[in-house]
Design brief:
- The chain is mainly beta and about 280 residues long.
- The chain contains 2 helices and 15 strands.
- The strands form 2 sheets. Strands 1, 3, 4, 6, 11, 12, 13 and 15 form an 8-stranded antiparallel sheet that branches. A 7-stranded antiparallel sheet has the order 2-5-14-7-8-9-10.
- A hairpin with a 4-residue loop joins strand 9 (about 165-170) and strand 10 (about 175).
- The longest helix is centred in the first third of the chain and has 10 residues, at about 15-25.
- It is globular, with a radius of gyration of 17 Å.
- The two termini are about 35 Å apart.
- The model is unreliable at about 1-40 (pLDDT under 50).
Length: about 280
């Protein structure tokens, strides 16, 4: 199926001054507990065996270009973005996936895998470790995406805006959280030059989405079915949102001129929580 063009995010963009102020004051850890229905995160250093789904630490890669279950690509246009298997930086073992992300849409690149071995007709979990070199910018960027068969194959995108993590829905450009100062403060930045564990849970039949960073739930990155101002109010304006992802991609896409170098490792998708 041919790729679909991406939309630029323009909703509620903060000024550079406001973004800087938020970076100083808005990101104190909120200490939110995990959602009630979510089991406690198990200890899962490296790449444990999963009962279903997959876990990949890239150790089986034999060359510098991603292969096996992973395919590199740049939808619609290509430029300076590159993807490779890196043997100098890793979270576990000796290899990771490296993304050199260029500034501007056509300098994007992603490495993806089908979710054909994962039961996405019920709730499922994903976990990955990410390390990057440049703080999240004020402009919108994406570093993970899932094609949603229930939304005309548009992407459900994870990345950042206004210096903090966010989800973005390609079909209508809705953001989670809303990009108001209060909404952004309910998310958190993505630390640089260190490995960070990112987890999310998608319950398509229930229309729910939850996100954890280093094992702590992020209040602003959750859709619980009840519209909450500054968090998922905008998101839930689309009636009956019921995502059905068909693939999972990691990479970089910039809707401004921002660049970054990222590494991903120990990527897992399963019907139960994998943990950090």
């Amino acid at each position: 199926m041919p790729p679909t063009p991406r939309l630029r995010s323009r909703r509620g963009r903060l000024s550079a001054a406001a973004a800087a102020a938020l970076a100083l004051a808005a990101f104190a850890p909120a200490g939110q507990p995990a959602a009630a229905e979510a089991p406690a995160a198990p200890a899962a250093a490296g790449c444990p065996t999963t009962a279903d789904g997959f876990c990949d630490d890239f150790e089986s890669q034999t060359g510098t270009q991603p292969s096996g279950r992973w395919t590199a690509g740049a939808p619609n246009c290509s430029g300076t973005g590159t993807a490779s298997v890196d043997s100098s930086v890793a979270h576990s073992g000796g290899k990771s996936l490296r993304i050199n992300g260029g500034g501007g849409y056509c300098n994007h690149v992603f490495v993806g895998t089908p979710l054909s071995g994962v039961n996405t007709s019920s709730a499922f979990w994903a976990r990955f470790y990410v390390r990057h070199t440049t703080p999240l910018p004020a402009a919108h960027i994406t570093f993970a995406a899932l094609r949603d068969a229930a939304d005309n194959n548009k992407d459900l995108r994870m990345g950042g805006q206004n210096g903090a993590l966010q989800w973005n829905r390609e079909s209508d450009d809705a953001t989670l959280p809303e990009q108001s100062p209060n909404g952004v403060s309910m998310s958190r930045p993505l630390p640089v030059n260190t490995w960070t564990c990112v987890e999310f849970r998608i319950d398509g039949p229930a229309g729910r989405l939850e996100t954890w960073v280093d094992g702590t739930a992020v209040q602003g990155l959750a859709v619980d079915g009840t519209p909450t101002h500054d968090i998922d109010g905008q998101w839930l304006r689309k009636a009956n949102w019921r995502p059905s992802p068909t693939d999972f991609r990691l990479g970089w896409e910039s809707y401004g001129g921002d660049t970054d170098t990222l590494w991903f490792d120990d990527v897992a998708v399963s019907g139960s929580r994998i943990g950090c």
